[in-house]
Amino acid sequence: MTAHDHGYKRLFSHTEMIRDLLMGFVREPWIADLDFATLEKYPGEFIDDRLRNRHSDVIWRLRWGPNWLYIYVLLEFQSRIHPHMAVRLLSYLGLFYQDLLDTRQIAPGQRLPPVLPIVLYNGQRPWTAPTEIADLIEPGPVGLQPYHPRLRYLLIDESAYRDAELAVMRNLAAALFRLENSHDPQTVQAVLTALADWLASPEHTELRRAFVIWLQQIFLKHRLPGVELPQLNELEEMRAMLSERIVEWTEQWKQDGLQQGLQQGLQQGLQQGLQQGLHSERRMLLRLIRRRFGEAIAEQSNPALERIERPAVFEDLGEGLLDSADESAWLARLNAAAEKTGR
């Protein structure tokens, strides 16, 4: 678990944060029936049969409806894309249910409680991993699908929300997302002003402290590398410090943004140049195929050529075209190359 994940775990160990996350970002009608006054934290570390700790980050439970049914909300914080996240959550869920049984929290004949698995993602790239475990499993023989495990998790991608959308919400989770998505010190200052106002009462002392620690030890260190930060204990102190140094820090952020933009532009330029080179290689090889075997074989070759993205493979195929005895030999060689080195 990264330092960033530890910071999030500390923040979402407060009832106010989990309440605002559910109320603000889970678009389900049954949220209105939850009794948030009953929110309580559940131990989130289990030991599997191979004696390895499995961290499920944060688990809460609260009552739902008139029957006092418990809802368990399992959070998995991610700053990087995990392609098999659904498998990880299925494993956590199994260990969680087993823990309920082992500790006799489920009476004989009683059904297991429902679970809402949430992945809270704060990475820069859009999340691309499947949210349904069925999408990770090959269908297999006809009739086997009903025996496949079923699990879908709720993805909350912080970068998917616009600042204007978050700014109108009196919501602690939305304030956190605004900080993560911020591109200038002015936005950070506005969020800190709001947080200092919302969390001013004494009962919020620990949550204020959690925000200060996350801001000072993780957020600002990442945004302002190399800048010496004074030790602060309150959100208002941090807001005042940012106000005093806003001109200096604005220039720093602009410079960092310019450097990042140049790096992204260079990467995009290199990628564009590579794609143009591959396009030229394909066109040249297609002309040679037409001259050797005719238009029909060239058309059959084109789909396989589109799958190849390494210039060296085109060089080998150019020689292979001359060595192939006939059309069948050529297509077999081409398909084998595409299968081995394609996307």
Key features of this structure:
54% helix; 12 helices; 343 residues; alpha/beta; five-stranded mixed β-sheet; two-stranded antiparallel ribbon
Overview of this structure, please?
- Among the domains are: 3-166, no CATH class; 273-341, no CATH class.
- Helix content is 54%, strand content 13%.
- It contains twelve helices and seven strands.
- The strands form two sheets. A five-stranded mixed beta sheet has the order 1-4-5-6-7. Strands 2-3 form a two-stranded antiparallel sheet.
- The radius of gyration is 27 Å and the shape is flat.
- The mean pLDDT is 82.
Radius of gyration: 27 Å
Instruction: Please mark out the parts with pLDDT under 50 across 5 or more consecutive residues, or reply none.
Output: none
Mean pLDDT rating: 82
Instruction: Tell me the span between the first and last alpha carbons.
Output: 31 Å
Largest sheet geometry: 5 strands, mixed
Secondary structure tally: strands: 7
> What portion of the residues fall into strands of 2 or more residues?
5-15%
Helical content stands at 40-55%
DSSP helical segment count: 12
Class by helix and strand content? alpha/beta
Instruction: List the strand order in the largest sheet.
Output: 1-4-5-6-7
